[in-house]
Fold:
Amino acid sequence: MADFPLIFEKSKPGRLGAPPPVCDVPGQPLTDLLPRDLIREPAALPELGELEVVRHFTNLSHRNYGIDTGFYPLGSCTMKYNPRVNEAAAANPSFTGVHPMQPVETVQGCLRVVHDLQSWMAEITGFSTATMQPPAGASGELLCLLMIRAYHESRGEAEQRRVVLVPDSAHGTNPASAARAGYRVESIKTDAKGLTDIEDLKAHLSENVAAMMLTNPSTLGLFEENIVEVCELLHSCGAQVFCDGANMNAMVGVTRPGDHGFDCMHLNLHKTFSTPHGGGGPGCGCVAVKAHLEPFLPTPVVAKEGDAYKLEWDRESSVGRVHAFFGNFLMNVRAWAYVRAYGREGLPEIARHAVLNANYVQARIRSEFPPAFDRHCMHECVLTAKPLREFGVRALDVSKRLIDYGFHPPTNYFPLIVPEALMIEPTETETKETLDAFCDVMLRIAQEAKENPEVLHSAPHNATVGRLDEAYAAKTLDVKWNRNPGSPVEVG
Ligand SMILES: *Cc1c(COP(=O)(O)O)cnc(C)c1O
Structure:
């Protein structure tokens, strides 16, 4: 970006931010301490004054778009606002200053946070207990499949059960986790109402099925009305049912996957329980299980004995660990504070508002962007920009144009089974004014598509960069400063 020099390009040799204190102990040459081949050249760091550094990074941050700057309706991601008070709790030195290998007597408060959450998450989801160890949703999925495999092994059926069923609307992590756990994935169709196709499911059922992975509410933003029947069908052939609970924001305190018949599930604290997310983490893909899967939980298990909390490392049937120690512990602190703040009355209100907001958006713009399946939605609506195809306009053009109006685009082209998909998740934390402003802009863009499609094709017009060739950008990464422009940059 020619208009925005890199910090290296602003560097002037000898310029200092703050003078380091004079060394008051005798110096020693590095060569006395380390073998020569381990000593590196001094790092080529930029040299600048403090104010230049402050301005550089402040200006860079203004080029970013985040939930703190505007509406962020990225479907399937639950980009809701996370109360700052929970950040304050997580920043408390009593939590940030501990070490995972401290004697348990000295970290009883931290273990209580984990233990409380294990039981609250189990209560919220309708399971018997939970583990906070997995650091992401995908990791929670993998853990559930490993536990399901261990369960089948304990019954002598692991050899025969090689198949995991995944709906064709599923998030990409589902088939990926199943393949990673060594299973063969078979895809289950979606029916005309947007639900699991029961006939297709029946056709896939056999003694070879280990599990089904089902998202509820589905990635189509719809509640699986057949869920009890689906679980019964799988259990009748000895298979287990995993719930992808990334969409739990629609149901917290209202209904419980454990009651629907699932055997285990994951939750994303970084979506539903007040942890900011993006940029790959850190997160927490908490996993809740029914009693028959408890022996397989990862260790250490945080348990309570009398008034004291302890760690159980020796569990014969445990699948082992999916992350060091207790996972990303500070996510637990945020979630603990959040659950305590909202409580039994407040949590279901959150879910109801998330659902109301999504239905409001769907109703307001459906004349131009009809729902993929014409039903009330849950916490997100999956609409289609297909009617604009006749004007040569695609969902991507609509999204790029939204940037011109100051909105983050919704999720595009997912779920894969919906042509020209626009997946909008407004979340419960937005006001009616914000939702209206977004809907007004969407309707205006539809109008522009009909009258002046070119303005959409060339959007965005006011962003730092226009349309990138994403495949080219991903394949020919150029992310390193090149001291000698013109010569190729090494990647790797
Ligand atoms: C976000 C999401 C996941 C994966 O969660 P990560 O924490 O990103 O690994 C899985 N399934 C669904 C439906 C999701 O929305």
In short: The first strand starts at residue 129 and ends at 131.
